[in-house]
Amino acid sequence: SKLIPSVLRMSQIFSDNKNMQAGDQFMIDWIPGTGAVITVKGQAQGEPFKEPAFFQALLSIWLGEHPAACKLKEALLGQVNNYKIQPDFTAGRKPQSLDTTGWSHL
Question: Going residue by residue through the chain (106 aa), what tens digit of pLDDT does each one get?
């Protein structure tokens, strides 16, 4: 598949940023004419991902028909309040609240 290089690159970005702390931001933005820009802690992570299909596949992890975590999808869509990240997502840290303020437009 032509998306394999992007999948490998995204895997490296996740690996390089696996120790996120409460308040750190990991953003995925689609910019028309540019592509998907990944920003971690305010720093762009290389060149944009140009393939719209990759961006859609990436978002489907959390927002697709069969997301990795159904409650997280609901929180991202503003359908539940006070969603707590489970300990297995936080690498041993105490669960943190996920602030979904302003995410209802997704």
Answer: 788 999 999 999 989 988 888 888 888 999 999 999 999 999 999 999 999 999 998 888 888 888 888 888 888 888 877 666 554 444 444 444 444 444 444 4
Judged by DSSP in three states, 49 sits in: strand
pTM of the predicted structure, to 2 decimals: 0.66
Q: What angle do CA 105, 57, 88 make, to 5 degrees?
A: 80
Distance CA 16, CA 19 (A): 8
CA distance 106 to 97: 19
Nearest 5 degrees, angle CA 102-CA 34-CA 74? 30
Q: Give the C-alpha separation, 56 to 53, whole Å.
A: 5
Decide if 51 contacts 35 (C-beta within 8 A): yes
